[in-house]
């Protein structure tokens, strides 16, 4: 009986250690009270997601933005969510197979909006609200993607955070650029796999934030519908980690999350109305 109790205690301590996070990054005070428009403040079909028009619209209202970046074939950073252009531009091609010149030939969602580069969005937000940059790793390019993003962000004087679903991206930041505010994205993968092709044990580990021991994130960005997780609660209570909630689509939910002290990524409504 004593052996069993000892083993349970050791497993509990291991579990807590695997959830470790970093607290009190000096940039947090500059993110206080900022609301982040998901992929810019888009308004489809006129204003596509992750378009310069959507980013300008958010910037004019003084909101931060969350955006996604993919690595192009020639090493640039394209601001777009999907790896394929099929949904957003009607072309069955992949960002990672395109050069910047080729990328700029496509238009977003039936408009005249091009796919922006990260540098273009950074120029727009210089001197403005903070940004959350999500790294979209594909085909094992997690290290190259993180390094390329840092090279671009190094020239940006504003406040930003970097996040990813892929803990290997966050691990690269932890080891190579520890001064950057970094976050782990997650959701309840086993309940909502949404095309994720990973072994179930790995999905279990990721949704329960067990990769934190390798990345020591400053914040956890969790799907708002799935946030009632023991691991997330422990990260907050034991390590004081900050929580982002995505993607909030109702003002009542936004205000509820803000009352909890969380940061909110929103879309489909004006939070000031």
Concise description?
This protein is an alpha/beta fold and 273 residues long. The protein has 12 helices and 9 strands.
Task: Please tag this protein with its features.
12 helices; single chain; alpha/beta; 273 residues; 8-stranded parallel barrel
Q: Helix segment count?
A: 12
Instruction: State the secondary-structure class.
Output: alpha/beta
Largest sheet: 8 strands, parallel, barrel
Order of helices and strands: HHEHEEHHHEHEHEHHEHEHE
Average predicted confidence as pLDDT: 96
Q: Indicate the proportion of strand residues.
A: 15-25%
**Percent helix range:** 25-40%
Low-confidence segments, given as residue ranges, are none
What form results from the Cα inertia axes? globular
How many extended strands? 9
Which sequence of strands runs across the widest sheet? 1-2-4-5-6-7-8-9
Distance between the termini: 60 Å
Rg: 19 Å
């Amino acid at each position: 009986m004593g052996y069993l109790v000892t083993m349970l205690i050791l497993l509990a301590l291991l579990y807590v250690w695997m959830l470790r996070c970093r607290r009190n990054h000096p940039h947090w005070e500059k993110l206080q009270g900022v609301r982040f428009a998901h992929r810019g403040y888009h308004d489809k079909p006129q204003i596509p997601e992750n378009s310069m028009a959507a980013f300008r619209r958010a910037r004019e209202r003084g909101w931060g933005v969350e955006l996604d970046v993919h690595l192009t074939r020639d090493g640039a950073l394209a601001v777009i969510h999907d790896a394929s252009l099929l949904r957003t531009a009607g072309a069955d091609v992949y960002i990672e197979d395109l050069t910047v010149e080729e990328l700029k030939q496509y238009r977003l969602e039936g408009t005249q909006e091009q796919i922006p580069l990260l540098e273009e969005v950074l120029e727009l937000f210089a001197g403005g609200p903070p940004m959350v940059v999500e790294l979209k790793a594909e085909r094992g390019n997690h290290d190259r993607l993180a390094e390329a993003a840092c090279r671009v962000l190094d020239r940006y004087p504003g406040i930003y955070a970097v996040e990813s679903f892929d803990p290997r991206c966050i691990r690269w930041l932890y080891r190579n650029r520890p001064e950057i505010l970094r976050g782990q994205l997650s959701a309840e993968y086993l309940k909502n796999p949404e095309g994720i092709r990973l072994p179930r044990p790995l999905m279990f580990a990721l949704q329960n934030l067990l990769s934190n021991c390798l990345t020591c994130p400053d914040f956890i960005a969790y799907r708002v519908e799935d946030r009632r997780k023991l691991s997330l609660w422990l990260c907050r209570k034991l390590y004081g980690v900050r929580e982002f909630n995505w993607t909030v689509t109702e003002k009542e939910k936004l205000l509820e999350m803000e009352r909890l002290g969380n940061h909110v990524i929103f879309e489909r409504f004006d939070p000031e109305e």
